[in-house]
Amino acid sequence: MDNKVKVDGLTFVPYLTRDEIQKQVERIGESLRKDLEGSSPVFLCVLNGAFIFAADLIREIGINDCRVAFVRYASYEGTSSTGHVRQLTGLTEDITDKDVVIIEDIVDTGLTAQTMIEDIKKKNPRSVRFVTLLHKPESSKTGFTPDYAAFEIPPKFIIGYGLDLDGKVRNLRDIYVIEEE
């Protein structure tokens, strides 16, 4: 893990290592494997931030009879939420009577999560589960709680492992937090 990462004039310091992340991916993968036994789920990866987490998690779950689809929502600009959720790419897959697992990178205010679930439920799935890598319960404006969360974190801005700053630094293997001054 690099000691510090600088991007766009901001400095980030180590927060979660790839090993810590992998342990949580394994834990959630095992839970989902048990919970979805006998199912042919549809894993719904939320772009862009969740793609690395989703790939690792889906491999860990190990259900071969599954499908993967992608949606894209936006609510962030720079380091803060705008408070408005926009769907950029919607679901085109038929999920009628399917077990759907939404895989998200981070739940902050809960607005995007609730919007996605409402959108998905309109398509008549058998069930909807919500998985997130990171959950910031202190930032919630809705009281939303994910079904599975790898980590609960304070309301700080983070990057790495798919999470970005204006599209940059998604490639980092570890997660970093903005340095306090």
Explain what the structure shows:
The chain has 181 residues and is of the alpha/beta class. It has one domain: 3-Layer(aba) Sandwich (Rossmann fold). The chain contains three helices and ten strands; from the N terminus they run E-E-H-E-H-E-E-E-H-E-E-E-E. The strands form two sheets. It has a six-stranded mixed beta sheet with strand order 5-4-3-6-7-8, with helices on both faces. A hairpin with a 2-residue loop joins strand 1 and strand 2. The longest helix has 18 residues, at 18-35. The radius of gyration is 16 Å and the shape is globular. The model has no long low-confidence stretch (mean pLDDT 91).
SSE order and pairing:
Layout: E1 5-7, E2 10-16, H1 18-35, E3 42-47, H2 51-61, E4 67-77, E5 80-89, E6 99-107, H3 111-121, E7 127-135, E8 148-152, E9 158-159, E10 175-178
Parallel strand pairs: 3-4, 3-6, 6-7, 7-8
Antiparallel strand pairs: 1-2, 2-10, 4-5, 9-10
Helix pairs in contact: 1-2
Order of helices and strands: EEHEHEEEHEEEE
What's the level 1 CATH class? Answer: Alpha Beta
Number of helices: 3
Give the strand content: 35-45%
Kindly, what is the distance between the CA atoms of the first and last residues, rounded to a whole number of angstroms? 21 Å
| Average pLDDT | 91
Radius of gyration: 16 Å
The CATH architecture is 3-Layer(aba) Sandwich
Based on DSSP secondary structure assignment, what is the total number of beta strands? 10
Principal-axis shape:
globular
The total number of structural domains is 1
